[in-house]
Amino acid sequence: MNKKSIKRTSLALFITLCAVSSIFLISCEQTENDIPADYFFKARGVTVRVGENVDNATSALGEYNSLYLAPSCAVSGVDQMYVYNGFRLTAYPEADKHIIYIIELTNDTVSTAEGVSVGDTREKVISVYGEAYESVGESVRYKGRDCLLQFIIREGKVTSIKYLAQTD
Asked: pTM for the full model?
């Protein structure tokens, strides 16, 4: 081999290694596209998400069973908790509106958009949502872009499901 062909071979090898390394790094790096789209709750034909104005949700959902007001633990002002059959919406004050930061499913009359309800097993949760979860105490959490979906599990069964606004 002459010097020219060695240089060409070395250059081709270098370019190939750089390309392969780049592909490897890109495929291993978690991007925002790897994180699931935000989880949402659907009831009475209405899609409800954390981060939305509670007035929009309650207007679309219709009559609620009760409304509780309490000093906010998160911000200055008064939180609102709207109680419906099977779920609750909790909202904090922001400017002239209230923003939903917790959606809690409390019984088996409602389910997540993916079909998991209170009373289902831990195994069903994992089979529906996958292995990419975080265990926190007796809960299993899945992270979306702006929402944590948390399943409280006691004795192998889901006792509560919460959509939580992320605070980081």
From this structure: 0.78
